[in-house]
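Risk register update: the risk of archive-format incompatibility is retired. Evidence:
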Amino acid sequence: MEIERERLRAIMESLSEAAGPVDKVIQGIVGLTVAESAFTSFTYSLAVAYSEVEAFTLQELRRKTEDTVEMAEMVGVSAGNWTGAEHAGTVKAV
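Archived output:
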């Protein structure tokens, strides 16, 4: 079995880049002023529902960002473990 360490490194580096769009979405949602104006523009029940949906969406996006960061860290750990195992299992001339 051969481990493609370069491919693992590429995956690890691309995972942090993959979280970028999620961060932009979070910033965009936080920057909206709909929730603040909803209580004066809509009925109370609709404003509450919108606020709850916005809070849930932000929570889920943050969780997905954390998952992506964790995946990147674990890919790094896996690559390091495979490198260590290969070096430990290599026969060396004395």
